[in-house]
User: Fold this.
Amino acid sequence: MARNKEALLLLIDVGPSMHSVLPQLQKVCSMLLQKKLIYTKYDEVGVVLFGTEDTNNDLTTEVGGYQHVVVLKNIKVVDGDIVEALQELPRGTVNGDFLDAVIVGMDMLIKKFGETNKGKKRLCLITNAQCPIKDSFEGTKEEQVTTIAKQMTVHGMRMESIILRGKLTQDANKRIMDENDRLLNIFSKETSTRLLYVEDSVSLFGALKTRNVTPSSIFRGDLELSPKLRIKVMVYKKTVEEKFPTLKKYSDKAPPSDKSATHEVKVDYEYKSSEDNDKVVPPDQRIKGYRYGPHIVPISAAEWDAVKFKPEKGVKLLGFTDSLNVLRQQYMKDVNIFIAEPGNTKAILAVSALARAMKEMNKVAILRCVWRQGQGNVVIGALTPNVSDRENIPDSFYFNVLPFAEDVREFQFPSFTNFPPSWQPNEQQLEAAANFIKMLDLTPQGSEEVLLPDFTPNPVLERFYHYLELKSKHLDAAVPPLDDTLKKITDPNADLLLQNKSVIDTFRTSFELKENPRHKKSRRLLREKWAVSNEEEGKGGITAQPANLIEYTSTVKVENIGDLTPVQDFEAMISRRDSPDWVMKAIKDMKNKIFDLVEDSHEGDNYPKALECLVALRKGCTLEQEPKQFNDFLRHLCNFCQEKNLRSFCEYLASNGLALISNTEAADSEVSDVEARNFLVKHEPKVE
Amino acid sequence: MDFDADDFFRDDDDDLHNQFSLEKETSKEFVVYLVDASPKMFTTTSPSEEEGKDETHFHIATSCISHSLKSQIINRSYDEIAICFYNTREKKNIQDLNGVVVFNVAEREFLDRPNARLIKEFDSIEETFSKNIGSKQGIVSATRENSLYNAIWVAQALLRKGSAKTVDKRMLLFTNEDDPFGSMNGAIKSDMTRTTLQRAKDAQDLGISIELLPLSCPDEVFNVSQFYADLIGLEGDHLVDFMPSAGNKLEDMKDQLRKRMFTKRIVKRIKFMIANGISIDLNSYALIRPTVPGAITWLDSVTNRPLKSERTFICADTGALVEESSRRFHPYKNQNITFSMKELIEIKRVSTGHLHLLGFKPLNCLRDYHNLRPSTFLYPSDEGMDGSMCIFVALHRSMIQLNRFALAFYGSSSRPQVVALIAQDEVIQSGGQIEPPGIHMIYLPYSDDIRLIEERFSDSSGMVPKASDDQIKKAADLIKRIDLKDFSVCQFANPALQRHYAVLQALALEEDEIPEMKDETLPDEEGLARPGVVRAIEEFKTSIYGENYDEESEQPAGKPSETSRKRKAIAEFATKECGNYEWGDLADTGKLKDLTVVELKYYLAAHDLPVSGKKEALISRILTHMGK
Assistant:
């Protein structure tokens, strides 16, 4: 069976103080199991509740005690039944004792697996740790916790404690909380325990690690500082993008009665000669061709192997450099982590010394890496220190790939200092901006950072899992709206905006958004624009020569349709006669403009303008004998509006009597008078 | 609304794709390089003799062009170019005008895609120039000959091809003569000036842009306003900063020229929603993207003709040919859940396609592992409103001042993502822009994208060794010794890519030898062998490893790792098992195929051969090994 199969025991506090967050917890936990159903469906899961009215666990029956702990689901392979149970967690009535729950959980895991499955047994404790645990019979609470933690290590269990704080809890006794924090800290020190404090619902969604991928190293060997000094390291991926699952193509050809049908679609590729369409070329008769300009150079795999670049495996230091020489935006890919070989004290020390020195001096190391023998390329990257502030976690490095010379496109952009004065903010505007930035702070004092990537779930994936679950019950369920919690990731926090309304308003009023009158002119010659704004000075600067008699700064011809006077622009453009292309360009640009207007319209505020444009376009198309252009466009636009819930626009057009161009107006039109007039009217009820 | 399924299901490289599609549709580029070849271009006026270099402006111009051709053939080989010299002795052009030579090679149109031969021959232009083309001042008062006029005319005629709508047409003019008609006077001068300017204006009216790449001598700065400001339509402020404060070094000049020869391409237009209805328009650019060797085309090995690939869909249950299905499915709880494309697109649409500001954080909240893909550069669109430009500049400046970055949600259709927006101030070095001013958009990982490696290797005994102050000090000494002072990110060429194209070029030109490339990425062995460095390394080594480092590292085989022990055990077992078979007999009688794959692998493992592949591959590998 699957190598990464893990056993997970959820220990959930359902006591009275937890009631307010239980709805969210239900979502989070069932989401966790749904993901397991998708990715690791052989994993085993059990659920233990504490703080319940009832008591139901083996330890009570065997040795007594352990009140108010209920085993909701025994450990079993994950299935829909557990998902459902988690969606309806009972509300408890008693203050729960998390230590009891931990012991019950450990007991279950030991009974079920004994010494086996080392490292793949996981306890996940979710509580707000606001209620005191019972005093132990012998020794202090600390000693008791230490003993339990030791046992946990012996049996190869991991624990994850998710502690709800901040917005997720009410006020509670500070002393008890501190004591509990101290106790929980013992777990994190003594065992491989992640201790997480979660302050808002978004982080709660993100905190539960769902896929426990066993990482595999991409490199093991020496970090070579010089031929004489090598440090044993292992390199792992630190970030890897979790992709949207690849769905298979569905075939409905199999009869519905066929229960064993796979419904899969196989994709077959055949290579055919370009001259003779029926001739299939077998794989051994194909040869790879590489493009070099217009040439395609054929090279067989064997030839290529003989000549291609073959670097030696190894990770070598090129040197250290100031961290300012490497900019954040130059990181190219997902990130790797370099850790010293575990158990190799000397290597751990060497990494630690380098990392700490680099951090102190603000330096990064530049490395040249070839991870595997036979790899076709080298990687240049920057090693940055990752100094650990926890006693049981060694120092390490992060490694980011840097670009090669070929990868950098050296585009030039106008300097802000060269912008015309109207684009330069004044003192007051700068202050408004600075205030705005300061107030919209996501790292409020005294609480955790908001939307920390490490705790931010992927809204698309979460939504997909949710939808999958819905569909498994009702095949034709509609896509659910984005969960309110997840909306906090995609949209600005409404509370934060409300709190700072006055700052935002000041910011807004400091910058009056008026349309740029210059933007009509050619975009390509940006400099021309400045030339216009500096017309006066420019003219003075150049000595009068006969050449200047040529009208150089004459009226710039309209080449684009702007926002301000689209109709006029369109008319000017369509009547330009220096090239026949202008007519088509004018029509095309106008269409785009109309689309933009309709699409950006808020409760119909752009409709009058859009209609104006449409009328102009209609006139232009009639004059230029391009009725098809207009008619097709109008049909397309209407279809678009029907689908986009902008039906009100079609109604608006109909009420203003806009019609297709008929063949009486323009001979080329294929539309009759009646058809033209009825277009919008009859179009309404049905969607084409 | 119709949709393209692939559009929504392709990978994270959507920037890359978008960019390519944008390039194909709108901005194919036709470029004519106009190079002044007058005697003045050949004088070596550079005072950089202390560097032992003796370069002419002509050399700078041609080497820039050659460089840009080489990168163009890799990146954008569909663009078409022509190279045109003026002020020449010979003439070669369609109009048969004096003093203008269009440089070309066999089997190529004047304006065409660059090919291997062109690049190769242009590389040796300086040797062949005087023989085949020759330099000669072509603006002569007496004969009213005007080679600049001719050159623009020739270039314009070359660029007549293709429609201005789909193609970007440019002339790039290299010259060191700021006053081409300076030697004339009176009516002739004004007449020549006027006709030349008119010629240029006509070209510009046809949608051709003319760009000037001036080369100035150190003692005499190129004065754009003498003549060329009118030709290319420069005025006012822009005139002032057109010539970057005269970078005197030739290397810089080369660098700057090279940068100017590429036009920017917008990847996407993005609306940045700030708050309460304030929004500004931004253009996004891909400033850094990995360059990869071009796509593979399959050829028929007999005819070397390209092959067409055809895709067919076959129903796995019935074997019937089917149309590409618009439904997808995913197994879940023992059933197949099907989705329509529309539903899948809807799932991904968690936000409008815009960029929504969420708030601000101090820069140190952006950790080094918060990265997934190359960043995207944002610059305000000049089509927007005055106020929005102003907002952008104000936010940009304040973010830099307050050391903060903005957190935003970017709702692209392929992977909606949380992004960090970092303001980058303009960096200018020796007259050239090193970093453009603007905002970099960095794609942040989600919690599921981050792996907890450190925790996994935490020590359950509670304590791991951390370096002592003395050890840190030794490390600091070492770091000081091996310091790359002027490190710049793009100083290394990608050796694999260079090799790839060197091989292709050699094969395309049917050369026998493939030139050896220098791998710039290797460490500087000499530098590391300097006594100071060696001493620092030794001291650091001693402080960490004690005296016996060498013994430790010399005996890595002393305690083999678990995996290697396992591997060894397997090999031993295989050797033992292997002895049970009469391999020679089996092979001779063709009975190898009767064995199981496991059995076949005994032989392979025992003889240290790869054990991968299908059964047939294994058998053929065994036969080859036995020499049969």
Notes: Confidence is low (pLDDT under 50) at residues 515-556, 682-688 of chain A. Residues 492 and 656 of chain A are 39 Å apart (CA to CA). The first strand of chain A starts at residue 7 and ends at 13. Chain A touches chain B through 241 residues (CB under 8 Å).
